[in-house]
Amino acid sequence: MKEKAQARREHLAKMRAEQKAKERRTAMMMWGVGGLVILLLVGGVGWYVVKDRQATSLDAVTSVSYAGGEHVWTPVKYKENPPVGGQHNNYWQQCAVYDKPIHSEHAVHSLEHGAVWITYRPDLPKAQIDKIKSIAESTGDANYMLVSPYPNLPAPIVASSWGKQMTFQNADDAKLPRFVTKYQNGPDTPELGATCGGEYAITATADEQPLPPEPKGQASPAPSESLAPSATPSPAKS
Protein backbone atom coordinates (compact mmCIF):
# COMPACT_ATOMS: atom_id res chain seq x y z
CA MET A 1 0.00 0.00 0.00
CA LYS A 2 2.77 2.42 0.93
CA GLU A 3 4.56 1.63 -2.33
CA LYS A 4 1.41 2.41 -4.34
CA ALA A 5 0.93 5.72 -2.51
CA GLN A 6 4.54 6.64 -3.10
CA ALA A 7 4.25 5.77 -6.77
CA ARG A 8 1.12 7.88 -7.04
CA ARG A 9 2.82 10.85 -5.40
CA GLU A 10 5.77 10.54 -7.75
CA HIS A 11 3.46 10.29 -10.74
CA LEU A 12 1.56 13.42 -9.68
CA ALA A 13 4.81 15.29 -9.07
CA LYS A 14 6.02 14.29 -12.50
CA MET A 15 2.77 15.46 -14.10
CA ARG A 16 2.99 18.78 -12.26
CA ALA A 17 6.59 19.24 -13.40
CA GLU A 18 5.67 18.45 -16.97
CA GLN A 19 2.73 20.90 -16.81
CA LYS A 20 4.95 23.67 -15.44
CA ALA A 21 7.55 23.01 -18.15
CA LYS A 22 4.83 23.17 -20.78
CA GLU A 23 3.55 26.48 -19.35
CA ARG A 24 7.09 27.89 -19.37
CA ARG A 25 7.56 26.85 -23.01
CA THR A 26 4.22 28.42 -23.94
CA ALA A 27 5.08 31.64 -22.11
CA MET A 28 8.50 31.82 -23.74
CA MET A 29 6.95 31.23 -27.14
CA MET A 30 4.40 33.98 -26.56
CA TRP A 31 7.09 36.38 -25.40
CA GLY A 32 9.18 35.46 -28.41
CA VAL A 33 6.30 36.02 -30.84
CA GLY A 34 5.41 39.29 -29.10
CA GLY A 35 9.00 40.45 -29.25
CA LEU A 36 9.20 39.58 -32.92
CA VAL A 37 5.99 41.52 -33.63
CA ILE A 38 7.35 44.55 -31.75
CA LEU A 39 10.65 44.27 -33.59
CA LEU A 40 8.84 44.11 -36.92
CA LEU A 41 6.68 47.11 -36.00
CA VAL A 42 9.66 49.18 -34.89
CA GLY A 43 11.61 48.16 -37.97
CA GLY A 44 8.65 48.93 -40.22
CA VAL A 45 8.16 52.37 -38.72
CA GLY A 46 11.88 53.07 -38.96
CA TRP A 47 11.94 51.95 -42.59
CA TYR A 48 8.94 54.16 -43.37
CA VAL A 49 10.56 57.18 -41.68
CA VAL A 50 13.81 56.64 -43.58
CA LYS A 51 12.00 56.13 -46.86
CA ASP A 52 9.83 59.21 -46.32
CA ARG A 53 12.90 61.29 -45.49
CA GLN A 54 14.66 60.06 -48.60
CA ALA A 55 11.56 60.83 -50.70
CA THR A 56 11.35 64.43 -49.46
CA SER A 57 14.98 65.24 -48.66
CA LEU A 58 16.31 68.50 -50.07
CA ASP A 59 19.94 67.57 -49.44
CA ALA A 60 20.61 67.85 -53.18
CA VAL A 61 19.77 71.57 -53.26
CA THR A 62 22.68 73.68 -54.45
CA SER A 63 23.29 77.05 -52.82
CA VAL A 64 25.05 80.16 -54.09
CA SER A 65 25.24 83.67 -52.69
CA TYR A 66 24.24 86.81 -54.57
CA ALA A 67 23.68 90.36 -53.40
CA GLY A 68 20.32 91.85 -54.28
CA GLY A 69 19.49 95.15 -55.92
CA GLU A 70 21.79 94.88 -58.96
CA HIS A 71 19.45 96.28 -61.61
CA VAL A 72 20.64 96.69 -65.21
CA TRP A 73 19.13 97.39 -68.63
CA THR A 74 21.44 95.16 -70.65
CA PRO A 75 21.28 91.37 -71.24
CA VAL A 76 23.03 89.36 -68.52
CA LYS A 77 25.23 86.30 -68.91
CA TYR A 78 24.47 84.08 -65.93
CA LYS A 79 26.69 81.45 -64.31
CA GLU A 80 23.85 79.08 -63.41
CA ASN A 81 21.44 77.49 -65.88
CA PRO A 82 18.80 78.68 -65.23
CA PRO A 83 19.97 81.63 -63.12
CA VAL A 84 19.30 81.90 -59.39
CA GLY A 85 20.50 85.44 -58.72
CA GLY A 86 22.78 88.24 -59.77
CA GLN A 87 22.16 91.22 -62.01
CA HIS A 88 18.68 91.51 -63.47
CA ASN A 89 16.39 93.84 -65.37
CA ASN A 90 14.66 96.70 -63.59
CA TYR A 91 11.30 95.14 -64.44
CA TRP A 92 10.27 91.82 -62.90
CA GLN A 93 8.22 89.07 -64.53
CA GLN A 94 4.58 88.76 -63.53
CA CYS A 95 4.36 85.56 -61.49
CA ALA A 96 2.23 83.20 -63.57
CA VAL A 97 2.30 80.05 -65.69
CA TYR A 98 3.81 80.62 -69.15
CA ASP A 99 3.78 78.24 -72.10
CA LYS A 100 6.76 79.91 -73.78
CA PRO A 101 10.22 80.99 -72.51
CA ILE A 102 10.56 84.27 -70.64
CA HIS A 103 13.55 86.57 -70.27
CA SER A 104 15.82 85.37 -67.47
CA GLU A 105 16.59 88.98 -66.58
CA HIS A 106 12.94 89.51 -65.62
CA ALA A 107 12.61 86.13 -63.92
CA VAL A 108 15.63 86.75 -61.68
CA HIS A 109 14.04 89.99 -60.52
CA SER A 110 10.98 87.95 -59.52
CA LEU A 111 13.25 85.58 -57.58
CA GLU A 112 14.59 88.64 -55.77
CA HIS A 113 11.00 89.31 -54.67
CA GLY A 114 10.57 85.78 -53.27
CA ALA A 115 9.30 83.77 -56.24
CA VAL A 116 10.07 80.14 -57.04
CA TRP A 117 10.71 79.55 -60.74
CA ILE A 118 10.00 76.07 -62.10
CA THR A 119 11.53 75.60 -65.54
CA TYR A 120 11.20 72.55 -67.78
CA ARG A 121 12.56 71.30 -71.07
CA PRO A 122 10.28 72.28 -73.98
CA ASP A 123 10.01 68.62 -75.08
CA LEU A 124 8.79 67.43 -71.68
CA PRO A 125 5.66 65.23 -72.05
CA LYS A 126 2.37 67.07 -71.64
CA ALA A 127 1.38 64.98 -68.61
CA GLN A 128 4.55 66.12 -66.85
CA ILE A 129 3.93 69.76 -67.77
CA ASP A 130 0.36 69.49 -66.48
CA LYS A 131 1.71 68.09 -63.22
CA ILE A 132 4.10 71.03 -62.86
CA LYS A 133 1.26 73.47 -63.47
CA SER A 134 -0.85 71.67 -60.87
CA ILE A 135 1.94 72.02 -58.32
CA ALA A 136 2.26 75.72 -59.14
CA GLU A 137 -1.47 76.22 -58.65
CA SER A 138 -1.82 74.27 -55.41
CA THR A 139 1.50 74.60 -53.54
CA GLY A 140 2.61 77.59 -51.53
CA ASP A 141 1.52 81.04 -52.69
CA ALA A 142 0.53 81.08 -56.36
CA ASN A 143 1.24 84.83 -56.40
CA TYR A 144 4.94 83.95 -56.09
CA MET A 145 5.14 81.11 -58.63
CA LEU A 146 6.78 81.28 -62.05
CA VAL A 147 6.53 78.40 -64.52
CA SER A 148 7.99 78.41 -68.03
CA PRO A 149 9.78 76.19 -70.56
CA TYR A 150 13.54 76.71 -70.74
CA PRO A 151 15.75 75.35 -73.53
CA ASN A 152 18.96 73.42 -72.76
CA LEU A 153 18.24 72.66 -69.14
CA PRO A 154 20.69 70.34 -67.33
CA ALA A 155 17.70 68.18 -66.24
CA PRO A 156 14.09 67.71 -67.37
CA ILE A 157 12.90 70.03 -64.57
CA VAL A 158 14.72 72.63 -62.49
CA ALA A 159 13.30 74.54 -59.54
CA SER A 160 14.99 77.79 -58.52
CA SER A 161 14.64 80.46 -55.87
CA TRP A 162 17.08 83.24 -54.99
CA GLY A 163 20.38 81.43 -54.37
CA LYS A 164 18.82 77.94 -54.32
CA GLN A 165 18.35 75.36 -57.06
CA MET A 166 17.44 71.69 -57.45
CA THR A 167 17.06 69.42 -60.50
CA PHE A 168 14.36 66.82 -61.02
CA GLN A 169 13.89 63.93 -63.41
CA ASN A 170 10.15 63.67 -62.88
CA ALA A 171 7.36 66.07 -61.91
CA ASP A 172 5.93 63.41 -59.58
CA ASP A 173 8.97 63.73 -57.33
CA ALA A 174 7.75 64.62 -53.82
CA LYS A 175 10.75 66.90 -53.40
CA LEU A 176 9.42 69.38 -55.99
CA PRO A 177 6.46 70.73 -53.95
CA ARG A 178 8.63 70.60 -50.83
CA PHE A 179 11.19 72.83 -52.54
CA VAL A 180 8.39 75.32 -53.26
CA THR A 181 7.09 75.42 -49.70
CA LYS A 182 10.57 75.71 -48.17
CA TYR A 183 12.18 78.31 -50.42
CA GLN A 184 9.31 80.45 -51.66
CA ASN A 185 9.64 83.80 -49.85
CA GLY A 186 12.46 82.19 -47.88
CA PRO A 187 14.94 83.86 -45.54
CA ASP A 188 17.44 84.42 -48.38
CA THR A 189 14.95 86.58 -50.32
CA PRO A 190 16.62 90.00 -50.77
CA GLU A 191 13.35 91.93 -51.10
CA LEU A 192 11.00 89.87 -48.97
CA GLY A 193 7.45 91.18 -49.21
CA ALA A 194 7.91 92.89 -52.60
CA THR A 195 5.18 92.16 -55.13
CA CYS A 196 5.53 89.69 -57.97
CA GLY A 197 2.87 91.51 -59.97
CA GLY A 198 1.60 95.07 -60.22
CA GLU A 199 1.85 97.75 -62.89
CA TYR A 200 5.59 97.38 -63.42
CA ALA A 201 5.49 93.61 -63.97
CA ILE A 202 6.23 92.18 -67.42
CA THR A 203 3.53 89.80 -68.64
CA ALA A 204 4.95 89.06 -72.10
CA THR A 205 7.13 86.12 -73.08
CA ALA A 206 10.61 86.48 -74.60
CA ASP A 207 9.39 86.07 -78.17
CA GLU A 208 6.65 88.67 -77.71
CA GLN A 209 8.88 91.54 -76.71
CA PRO A 210 12.61 92.20 -76.19
CA LEU A 211 14.17 93.43 -73.00
CA PRO A 212 12.97 96.98 -72.44
CA PRO A 213 15.40 99.80 -73.27
CA GLU A 214 16.61 102.13 -70.59
CA PRO A 215 14.08 104.95 -70.17
CA LYS A 216 15.52 108.31 -71.14
CA GLY A 217 15.52 110.92 -68.41
CA GLN A 218 13.99 108.57 -65.82
CA ALA A 219 15.73 107.45 -62.65
CA SER A 220 13.39 104.52 -61.96
CA PRO A 221 11.10 102.23 -63.97
CA ALA A 222 7.74 103.58 -65.03
CA PRO A 223 5.01 102.06 -67.21
CA SER A 224 5.10 102.98 -70.88
CA GLU A 225 3.48 101.84 -74.12
CA SER A 226 6.72 100.14 -75.17
CA LEU A 227 6.32 97.77 -72.20
CA ALA A 228 2.71 96.84 -72.93
CA PRO A 229 2.43 93.07 -73.48
CA SER A 230 1.04 91.66 -76.71
CA ALA A 231 -0.55 88.75 -74.84
CA THR A 232 -1.44 87.82 -71.29
CA PRO A 233 -0.31 84.50 -69.76
CA SER A 234 -2.61 82.23 -67.82
CA PRO A 235 -2.24 83.24 -64.18
CA ALA A 236 -1.45 80.63 -61.59
CA LYS A 237 -4.44 79.98 -59.38
CA SER A 238 -4.25 79.89 -55.60
Please give the structural blueprint.
Blueprint: H1 2-56, E1 62-63, E2 71-72, E3 88-89, H2 104-112, E4 116-120, H3 126-138, E5 145-149, E6 157-161, E7 164-168, H4 175-183
Parallel strand pairs: 2-3, 4-5
Antiparallel strand pairs: 1-7, 4-6, 6-7
Care to give the gist of this entry?
The protein is of the alpha/beta class and 238 residues long. The protein has 4 helices and 7 strands.
Overview of the structural elements:
- This protein is α/β, with parallel strands linked by helices.
- Helix content is 36%, strand content 11%.
- The protein contains four helices and seven strands, in the order αβββαβαβββα.
- It has helices spanning 2-56, 104-112, 126-138, 175-183, and strands spanning 62-63, 71-72, 88-89, 116-120, 145-149, 157-161, 164-168.
- The strands form two sheets. Strands 1-7-6-4-5 form a five-stranded mixed sheet. Strands 2-3 form a two-stranded parallel ribbon.
- A hairpin with a 2-residue loop joins β6 and β7.
- The protein is rod-shaped.
The radius of gyration over CA amounts to 32 Å
User: Can you write the helix and strand succession as a string?
Assistant: HEEEHEHEEEH
**Strand count:** 7
| Ends distance | 97 Å
Strand count, sense and barrel status of the largest sheet are: 5 strands, mixed
Low-confidence parts, pLDDT < 50 over ≥5 residues?
47-51, 222-238
Categorize the overall geometry: rod-shaped
Mean pLDDT, to the nearest integer, reads: 85
| Range of strand content | 5-15%
Q: Helical stretch count?
A: 4
